[in-house]
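Predict the 3D structure for this chain.
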Amino acid sequence: KALKLSRQSDSNLESYRQALLLMKLGKGQEALALLEKLGKAIDHPWIHLDIARAHEKNGDINLALQHTGKLLDLYPGYLPLTVVHAQMSIEHETDLQNIITLLKHQLQKDDIALVHKLLAAAYFRNGQVAAALESTGNQYLLDGYPELASQQYQLALKMDDIDDSTRQRLQTKLAELKP
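Done. Predicted structure below.
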């Protein structure tokens, strides 16, 4: 029985590799068929995430986002899933305000440069330029570039669409960056 499980596991792994290769080759329909079959056999979030990616490659962004949205309900705060869902939404300019909220929640768990980068992109696509500049500054700071962060914060301060609390927060960040 153990040998049978091992063979099945090897077969599933090979199917997964083949599906990923098919996606890279632009054969989304073939990849989707393999991934959906595999998803029924193995309930793993990465397989389901790649099913969503295959839907996106096939031009069905709504189905892809529905799929990742359901996965987010099952696995809230799971960073790889949040990243893929946000990237898809930002690229297709879909549901940006909810993506901003999702990324802000993710930052409470994972304060990393990638999440700030995605948040900046979502803000920018949503027309919130000052917030995008601040998020880009936060990204640069986490990446170890305080000079670039300072520039972003200064640019954000020059924007007309910031409120008093944002202005104060940016000024505080700038003061903390001065030697």
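Confidence is low (pLDDT under 50) at residues 1-5.
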